[in-house]
Design brief:
CATH class: Alpha Beta
Strand content: 35-45%
Number of domains: 1
Helix content: 25-40%
Radius of gyration: 15 Å
Shape: elongated
Number of strands: 5
CATH architecture: 2-Layer Sandwich
Strand order of the largest sheet: 3-1-2-4-5
Largest sheet: 5 strands, mixed
């Protein structure tokens, strides 16, 4: 098994429960870890035999930048689903940080993990 990590994907989106948060995009930082069987890709050196992280990342970017969630939990769940839609992914973990969500704290985050098919 192999692990691909997408680290500190910084995006702007509508996220939060307060009126001012519903009017202005805020920064979120997404970290992804996905596990897959890399044995075929190691042999063939062909992108079709691996998880195409660029395709997954583009889907995450489009989804998050167009979304308007109230909760980080919901956003993290939707990003996790995008990753697990790839049948090669056996397990995935998503952490979404909302910098500046609390005074005196650098960030607040939610992390979800699930197995694929």
């Amino acid at each position: 098994m192999a692990i691909i990590r997408i680290t500190e994907l910084s995006l702007k989106t509508i996220i939060g429960i307060f009126d001012w948060e519903r009017k202005r995009k805020q920064k979120v930082v997404i970290n992804v870890e996905l596990e897959f069987n890399a044995s075929k890709a190691i042999k063939t050196d062909d992108v079709k035999d691996t998880v195409d992280y660029k395709v997954i990342t583009k889907k995450i970017i489009q989804h998050v930048e167009e979304s308007k969630y109230f909760l980080l939990e919901k956003m993290a769940g939707s990003v996790l689903k995008i990753i697990l839609d790839d049948p090669k992914v056996k397990r995935a973990k998503v952490r979404i940080d909302k910098p500046g969500a609390l005074r005196f704290a650098r960030s607040v985050s939610v992390e979800l993990e699930a197995k694929g098919r």
